Amino acid sequence: MDDSGKAGAFSPQQVTFLLSARGREALAQVASPELAQADPVTQVSRLRRSFSPAETSALLTLARLRERAARKFPQAHRLFFTPEALEQATAFPVALHRAQEIHRRSPPGPVLDLGCGIGGDTLALARFRPVIAYERDPVRLALAQANVQALGLADQVAFRQADWVAELDAGRLPRAAAAFGDPSRRRAGRRLFRLHQMEPPLEAFLALAERVPLLAVKVAPGVSESELPRQCRVEFVGHQGVCKEAVLWFGLDALVDAGPRWASVHTGRGWERISGDREPPPLGELAPGMALHEPHPAVIRAGAFRELCRRLEAHLFDPQIAYLVSPVARRDPLVHSFRIREIHPFSLRRLNRRIQVLGLGALELKKRGSAVEPESLRRRLKPVPGGRPGVIFFTRQGDRRLMLIGERLAEE
C-alpha cells in the first residue's frame, strides 16, 4: 500500500541494522526458544548486553510482528514488517488469488505494482510474472526488497523509489501487460471511504487504465455503488468469513467472462466464485421446519442472491433481508445453514419462556433488519444451565418484527 510518510515503528537507521548481517544474526538469536520464551524484562536485559536501546527495540518489535504476521503470511518468520504496514497488508491467500487472476487475464509481459509497501502483493505477483514495483517511502521500500530476497524472488522484481503518478504524468511509466494498485485509504490516522479521497485518488487510476491492458485496484469492501466508474467491474473478496476488500477491474476485453460484479470466497475447498445479478431473487414463504441460509458477506456485497437461490433451491422471505430459506437443507460453502424450529413475533417474555421449554443453554444471537441489539439483550435472557445450543434470529418480514428460534446445521 502506498502510504507515504508513515514509516511505522522503524527509523532508517533501525532498518539498516535489521537488514545487516549483524541484525539478521541477532534476529535468529531472538527467535531461539531460550530467548523467545523468556519474559520481556529478561529479553531486554540480555539484548542490551550487545545492542543499543534502538537496536534492541527494533529486534523485539520485529520478532513480535513476525508472530502476528504468521496469520497472514506462510513464511512470516523470514520476512520484515512495520506495525502499520502489517495491519494493512493483504493476507497472502488473497494476494495469491489476485496475482493468479492478473496472470490469467493479461497478455504476456511485466506487471506494475503501484505502491508496493512492504511487498505483500509483490511476493504473490512475482510468482507468475516479472514485476516493476513502485514505492515512495524508503523504509518500506527497503523492507520490500529484503522480503523478495528472503523468498528467492529478487530476480523477478525491479524496484523504483518514485511517485508512480508523477511518472505516469511525465510519460516515464514503463509499458506493462497489467498493473495493480493499492491506494492508501487512511489520512492522519482516519479511514477514507470515498474513491476520490484515496491517495492516489480514483482519477489517477482512470488515467492509467487507458494505458495498460488490465488494471486491478484494491478498494474498501464497502465501496459505494454510486461511486463506481462505468467502465470497471467489481470483485468482492471473502477470506476467513469476512469480506476483506473489493477490487475494481479495468480492461473489458480481458474480462468478457466476468460479469459486472462477482464474489470470490476462500473456503476449505479453495476459491469459490459466484456472479451477482441485477434481477431480483425469488420470494416465498417463511415457515418452521425450513432451512435458513446466511450468505457470506462477500456474496451479499456482490448481490449474488439469484444464483445462490438457484444453487440451494431457496428464496428470500423479504426482499430487503439477506437470509435465504429453503424447504430442504442443502450444504454450500458460501453459506452458514440453520434449521428453523419456531417463529414468533418479537417478545422478550415469550423468548425466555420458549428458551426454558426448549432447554436451550448456549445461545447464538443474530440479527438482520432488526433494531434489536443482540449483545445488549443477552443479559436479559435466561438460558438453561447445561442446556443444548440454539440460535435466535432477530429479523423482520415486511412490518412484522420476528424472532426465529433454531439450531445450526453441521457444515461439510
Textual characterization of the structure:
The model is unreliable at 1-8 (pLDDT under 50). The protein folds into two domains: 88-275, Vaccinia Virus protein VP39 (Rossmann fold); 291-408. The strands form three sheets. Strands 3-2-1-4-7-9-8-10-11 form a nine-stranded mixed beta sheet, sandwiched between helices. The protein contains 15 helices and 18 strands. A hairpin with a 2-residue loop joins β17 and β18. The protein is globular, with a radius of gyration of 25 Å. The longest helix is centred in the N-terminal third of the chain and has 17 residues, at 53-69. By secondary structure, the chain is of the alpha/beta class. α1 packs across α2 (21-31). It is 32% helix and 25% strand.
List the main descriptive attributes of the protein structure presented here:
Rossmann fold; 15 helices; 412 residues; 25% strand; seven-stranded mixed beta sheet; disordered N terminus
Summarize the model shown:
This protein is α/β, with parallel strands linked by helices. Helix content is 32%, strand content 25%.
Q: What is the CATH topology descriptor of the largest domain?
A: Rossmann fold
Instruction: Categorize the overall geometry.
Output: globular
| Distinct helical segment count | 15
Major beta sheet summary? 9 strands, mixed
Strand order of the largest sheet: 3-2-1-4-7-9-8-10-11
Q: What is the percentage of strand-forming residues?
A: 25-35%
Write the layout of secondary structure elements.
Blueprint: H1 12-19, H2 21-31, H3 33-36, H4 40-47, H5 53-69, H6 83-88, H7 92-105, E1 111-114, H8 120-125, E2 131-134, H9 138-150, E3 157-160, H10 164-169, E4 178-181, E5 186-187, E6 190-191, H11 202-209, E7 214-219, E8 233-239, E9 242-250, E10 261-267, E11 270-275, E12 291-295, H12 297-302, H13 305-312, E13 315-316, E14 324-326, E15 335-345, H14 348-358, E16 360-367, H15 374-378, E17 388-397, E18 400-408
Parallel strand pairs: 1-2, 1-4, 2-3, 4-7, 8-10, 16-17
Antiparallel strand pairs: 5-6, 7-9, 8-9, 10-11, 12-14, 12-15, 13-14, 15-18, 17-18
Helix pairs in contact: 1-2, 1-5, 2-5
